[in-house]
Amino acid sequence: MPEGDEVLLTCQRLHAALAGRELVRAELRHPRLSAVDLRGRTVREVRPVGKHLLLRLDDDRTLHNHLRMDGTWHLYSSGARWKRPGHQARAVLGHAERTAVGFNLHDLRLLPTAQESRLVGHLGPDLLDPDWGEQHLAEAVRRLTARPEREIGLALLDQSVLAGVGNLYKAEVCFLLGRCPRTPVSEVDPERAVRLSRDLLVRNAQRPQQITTGDPRRGHEHWVYGRHRCLRCGGPVERGVQGEAPEQRVSYRCPRCQP
Fold first, then answer.
1. Is 249 a catalytic residue?
2. Where in the sequence is the domain holding 157, given as residue range(s)?
3. Does the N terminus or the C terminus of the chain have fewer Cβ atoms within 10 A?
4. What is the reported pLDDT for 207?
């Protein structure tokens, strides 16, 4: 599932390609929206809230989607051949020069912009909010510590606690904290956990490559995520499963560095 920084980058690219332009092609190939015609509408802006994408139109409606595990948006010059089969396309939005195609978009909704909170109001503080400040930090810490017995790995993935952290950053934040992902929140410095999460997301927000170590060399980007050996100590990385189905996720930790 895409992390918050990937969603931000996607929104920035969609905004640059579509904002201020009238849609001459607007196909929503989703059972709930198949009869909707957005041709003639102008895209005002595209912005993220956590892992949610909000495409706002000039008629005070918002096209909302969540990428889930396999959703993605591609941008093409008008008339260019798509890199994925057409049957995977769920949204096609374009003007005379550019076309944005959303593939495998399982969650796609159109609603009044004033009612966006119906879909994103439950989220915790957005770690990539451009207006992030001490109040956001305090609220994130409050939500994180509300259930002190909860495993820190599961708490970091809960979007109602913090919006934006996915499995990659969960694994790397736990490593940098020196804690096993199953450690109770009560045994972790919650403010440091929030600051680390935001720092990693912010540092990677403007590039497609996600680097948590500061080293962009291939095979050196992550401490434990997706690795067989810990980048710090060289010991074997333990791979397991955390959480209950259907939210079960792969978990990584170094037994030496994260006792």
1. yes
2. 134-253
3. C
4. 87
